[in-house]
Please model this.
Amino acid sequence: LAFTCPPRLTAVLRPTAAMLLAAAPEQGVAHLLDEQGQVVRSFKDCRPGPRGLCTARAAVVSAEASRSFTHVWAGGKEQPQYRCQAPERLGPILATSDAAHVVGGAVSGKLYLWQLSTGRLLLAWNGHFRGVTALATVATDGYLVTAGEDAILHVWSFASLLSAAASDAAPPPRALRTWTAHTLSVTDVAVAECGPHSLIASASLDQSLRVWRLADGVRRCLHRVEASAPLTAAAIDPAHRALYAGTSEGSCRRDVAERQPRCRREADERQPRGSRGAAE
Model:
């Protein structure tokens, strides 16, 4: 399958096979490809921006690059099932693994939460001082990680977001964690799941890749890798053994952990001896 312009890509993991969803914004179409590169399904009127394409079980969600519309495809149809409009143009979008909600980050720094089944906007709040650049969920959709051009990472509790959405009188959501060690825009985040001790990697234009632990309330990162060029992408081994970073020069860097931690054991080692029995 050939594209006339660089496609937007996202992985699709299904119980029977892994697939790739590729969208060509200039052509206005996205294709679902199997492991052999064959087209399984096509989705028309799909023109996403960077990180503006995601999947939610059988649904496909796209935030248009040039307009403030979000399209949702479901039921095996080529045309969008419905379109919903945000107050402004969105950048990255993310669907929860249970396909219940979609989160979008805007160029203004605002964050938006929708109900996927109906397209109803549930909540809008100020998340960053500048544009939102990356989104991720952690701890089985228990928390939302957001990053922005303001060099800040926030972690939000999904329970608090839904609570704020349920009441007009509720105060604005407050971040559970805020990390400010980066000095330039955060370009990507990646997650290695391990419950409350999940690891979060953040790549930045300040040429650093940093690793944070969800359970830690401190602002200091666990690990830092310095690169020779601005970083634009990050990935982390699910077993917490290695970090990967892509640079603006087109190179990829791999950083191998000196030891392979077990997140439960590490959490125990960080506790005072007298508190371990109570924690277990």
About this structure: The chain has a mean pLDDT of 84. The first strand starts at residue 8 and ends at 13.
